[in-house]
Design a protein that fits this description.
Helices cover about 5% and strands about 55% of the residues. The chain has a 22-stranded antiparallel beta barrel. A hairpin with a 5-residue loop joins strand 8 and strand 9.
């Protein structure tokens, strides 16, 4: 399918969507006069201390409409838009608090309410149960919202796996990474309002402890102007200190890849392949101060996806600490502090067929600290004003040490005779600040302005040696750079059934070895609210995604084969989304997206090493259709979801940047992070005191490195000869909680990953090496809770 037909397909799709908008909205206008629509706001607070309760779940059901569910924001506020006046049943729930239930009248005289919740008596332990919400739901704007109550990952799972299994449009990728809508890993975290960038390539440490994740909002499109940076997705994580008096939780787990089975995939039949770890966390509230602290240790014999079906030279340790402090300054302002530190030491597996024996080691340190100040200036119904000011720090270090037995196979420019082995020692520190001011001028108009500045400094030292261990060329350099952005954004309701989000963003980056880059990026989004159960939007955004400063790696004159560093990705992004909720408990999201990148960005492994360098692709085209379903019924403890997508990403033209040789690809080719069909199906049955969770993951296959075939560029040209074999992976989790007393319990959990022990390639050797699926792993975990 050539570009002409792609354009025609896109226009027909958007045209039909616009027509459906008009027809449904006319029906909605006839059924519900505009004059009856109002905006209703609910504030939720703690009854004793008066502190706001962020992320409380509010359910509002009217006599003539289906239920609407929202979570309170960081100010304890939930806003219900486009409500009919009339009688409603309101229910509010929050962990460790007594649920609230009442009947209210919403009209022009009652547009705001404050509700206080009382803590559950301390002698009654709260056990997770009767939890009908699925792990992911959709808010009224079509964004996915993740809640952890019904997510049961094995203890070896990482934040990227949480994203992959719960984010619509995500693809499982090697080495614990995740591809989102065809991107190779360009996503960013926001923790309690402060940005946390990814670390040096290879960093796999946790971002926050799952115990304090109240919710995470996944933005894969429709971004307002305040979002920038690496934004294939924005993972907006909100955390909280657990409520109630002193809480203590400790766990231990052990697992094995059953090496004595007939299908054992280890280098030696006598080798045991195990995993084990411990975790402890505690929290408490002291008047206005709440704190949380956790520590984790993990050990495994399979730390990185291996290049062969056999497991060897892959032992690794992970240590991480996470702390959080909340302090309530007054009823209108508070401080929150997040601190994280992680350390990883692992062997690097190798391909003995292609490279011979190696004994490389990799050590990674990751850390961040954020301090955020929240202030509410006004809580009037039509004139709320909120201020956020954050300071953030980000540190990361990577040491890659090649083994003494490595084969010298890397060749520098203009030297095809002498081979070398490459090592790396790199670290960086980023210091930044962010300010955001939100002002609601009326029910119909909201404005947001803000700015973000960060400075990065560090060093990147590359060394080499020849086959006789003689020192070769090296690159020893310090670097400095900065990122600055400013934005303005409005939300305007010209009609009760329509909202226009429009904004503009300015980005500027100063990075080593390349010229200063900057861009002014307009964004606009048309939201249609047909009724409470049907919403849609259409979006256009100009995107600017600069590379993180620490990844623009120069080998200086000794390693350069060109004079071109890697520059920012620049995109034109289009999206259309429709969301519907059925009365029988099913929510649906359908999305179409189209993105043209000129240039795009990918990364490449340097020689036989773990050193990766980003480079530019002259043109990258991405498009896809996504279908998400979730299911839950109030009062019945079964929930589930399906995330499915069909997508295609291909590139054409010159490959430049990274100070690597300029290369012409010729005809369009599928990128190595292109997978046409992806699906995650998850079901969770969770009555009181026990649960069963089954998650299945399907992928039609990433690249197998076969570039000799003709590649079709249409969405439905599967090009399967250029991709590995499709695969299904099934993971199972079972847990049971035993009450030991009024304030303590113990939980036993069994996790089985890759239940049917399906052996297959995740991807072939493309710009990076091949990677194989991990074999079946059986893990037993015991957890003790005290509160």
């Amino acid at each position: 399918m050539d570009r002409r037909y792609i354009r025609i397909f896109r226009l027909l799709f958007l045209g039909m969507l616009v027509c459906s908008f008009r027809d449904v909205s006319n029906a909605a206008i006839t059924a519900v006069p505009y004059s009856t629509s109002v905006v209703f706001r609910v504030f939720v607070r703690d009854a004793e201390q008066g502190e706001v309760l962020a992320f409380a779940r509010i359910r509002l059901r009217g006599e003539r409409s289906t239920a609407r569910v929202m979570l309170t924001d960081s100010n304890g506020l939930a806003t219900f838009e486009n409500l009919d006046t009339g009688r409603y049943i309101i229910s509010i729930s929050f962990v460790n608090y007594i649920p609230f239930l009442d009947t209210i009248i919403i009209d022009e005289t009652h547009l705001t309410d404050t509700i206080v919740l009382h803590e559950s008596p301390h002698e009654e332990i709260v056990v997770q149960g009767n939890n009908e919400l699925p792990a992911t739901t959709y808010d009224s704007s079509g964004n996915q919202v993740f809640k952890p109550e019904n997510y049961h990952p094995p203890p070896v799972a990482r934040m990227t796996q949480l994203i992959q299994q719960n984010l619509l449009g995500a693809v499982r990728a090697p080495t614990g990474e995740v591809h989102i809508r065809g991107q190779h890993g360009e996503f960013s975290y926001i923790v309690d309002g402060a940005p946390v960038s990814l670390g040096i390539f290879g960093g796999l440490n946790e971002i926050v402890d799952p115990a304090v994740i109240e919710r995470a909002t996944f933005w894969t499109g429709g971004w307002p102007a305040e979002y920038g940076g690496q934004m294939a997705a924005i993972i907006d994580v909100k955390t909280r200190v657990p409520t109630g008096m002193f809480n203590l939780s400790g766990s231990t787990y052990t697992g094995s890849y059953t090496p004595n089975s007939p299908k054992a995939k280890v280098i030696s039949p006598d080798q045991t392949v195990n995993s084990n770890g411990e975790q402890i966390s505690m929290s408490d509230h002291l008047d206005r101060l709440g704190w949380f602290l956790s520590g984790t240790r993990q050990e495994t014999d399979r730390r990185i996806d291996v290049p062969q079906p056999k497991i060897f030279h892959d032992h690794g340790f992970d240590y991480s600490l996470f702390g959080k402090v909340d302090y309530l300054l007054s009823d209108k302002e508070y401080l929150t502090l997040d601190i994280n530190y992680g350390n990883t030491a692992t062997q690097v597996p190798y391909d003995s067929v292609e490279t011979g024996r190696q004994d490389d080691m990799e050590k990674i340190t990751e850390a961040f600290q954020t301090l955020s100040y929240y202030r509410t200036f006004s809580s009037e119904t039509s004139s709320t004003s909120n201020l956020l000011v954050s300071l953030f720090f980000r540190e990361s270090a990577l040491t890659y040490t090649p083994g003494l037995i490595d084969q010298a196979s890397f060749h520098f420019a203009n030297d095809s005779v002498h081979g070398y082995v490459i090592g790396e020692d790199q670290n960086f520190l980023t210091t930044g600040t962010l300010a955001r001011l939100e002002k609601r001028w009326s029910h119909e108009f909201l404005s947001i302005v803000g700015l973000n500045f960060s400075a990065t400094s560090g060093k990147q030292d590359f060394s080499s040696r020849d086959s006789l261990s003689n020192p070769g060329p090296e690159s020893l350099s310090d670097y400095k750079g900065s990122d600055f952005s400013a934005f303005g954004q409005i939300e305007w309701f010209p009609k009760n059934w329509m909202r226009i989000d429009a904004g503009i963003r300015y980005d500027q980056q100063i990075a080593p070895d390349i010229a200063m880059e900057k861009q002014l990026s307009p964004r606009v989004k048309l939201n249609i609210f047909f009724d409470e159960d049907n919403t849609a939007y259409m979006y256009y955004g100009r995107l600017f995604m600069p590379n993180t400063i620490m990844t623009i790696r120069s080998f200086t004159s000794n390693g350069n084969t060109s004079e071109y560093g890697t520059v920012a990705e620049q995109d034109n992004f289009y999206e259309a989304v429709y969301r519907h909720h059925f009365d029988f408990g099913v929510g649906v999201k359908i999305a179409y997206y189209h993105k043209d990148s000129n240039p795009g960005v990918d990364d490449e492994t340097v020689g036989v090493s773990a050193v990766k360098i980003p480079f530019n692709l002259e043109f990258v085209h991405s498009q896809g259709i996504e279908l998400g379903l979730n299911y839950n019924v109030v009062g019945f403890p079964l929930s589930g979801y399906i995330n499915s997508s069909i997508s295609h990403v291909y590139s054409a033209g010159l490959l430049t940047g990274g100070f690597l040789p300029i290369y012409q690809t010729g005809s369009p080719v599928d990128r190595d992070h292109d997978q046409r069909l992806s699906a995650v199906i998850s079901a969770n049955y969770q009555p009181k005191n026990w649960y069963v969770n089954v998650t299945s993951i399907y992928g039609s296959g990433l690249s197998n490195a076969n570039l000799s075939i003709p590649f079709g560029t249409g969405l439905f040209n599967f090009n399967q000869a250029g991709h590995v074999t499709p695969s299904w992976i099934v993971n199972v989790a079972i847990g049971w909680t035993l009450l030991l007393g009024p304030r303590s319990s113990i939980q036993a959990s069994l996790f089985i990953t890759n239940l049917f022990d399906h052996e297959h390639l995740l991807k072939g050797a493309y710009t990076n090496g091949p990677s194989w699926e991990e074999p079946r792993n059986i893990i037993l975990k015991l957890t003790f809770h005290l509160r």
